[in-house]
Design a protein that fits this description.
Eukaryotic RPB6 RNA polymerase subunit; mainly alpha; 56% helix; 0% strand; single chain; globular
Length: 87
């Protein structure tokens, strides 16, 4: 279980501590709403699970709108491919 993670472990993954808080909150809300996790968790709370994903590099900030659109497009293609495989 992740207890009191140091902000220093995250600052190489996000531009600022403020960005970290926003990213953590958004991802925690996604997980609470039923978003598919990107890994196995040791934590129970969604906020700590979000931090685990950020720490492992599975969740990132896309400051460039083009990069964000590309990431969304790739996720949609992956979801479509997985849905086709299930059929």
């Amino acid at each position: 279980m992740m207890l009191k993670p140091s902000i220093d472990t995250f600052l190489d993954k996000v531009p600022s501590k403020y960005s970290l808080v926003i990213l953590e909150a958004k991802r925690a809300h996604e997980l609470e709403a039923g978003a598919k996790p990107t890994q196995e968790f040791t934590s129970v709370k969604s906020t700590l699970r979000a931090l685990e994903e950020i720490e492992s590099g599975n969740v990132v900030i896309h400051p460039d709108p083009k990069a964000k659109r590309e990431a969304v497009r790739r996720r949609a293609e992956e979801a479509k491919r997985l849905a086709e495989e299930e059929e």
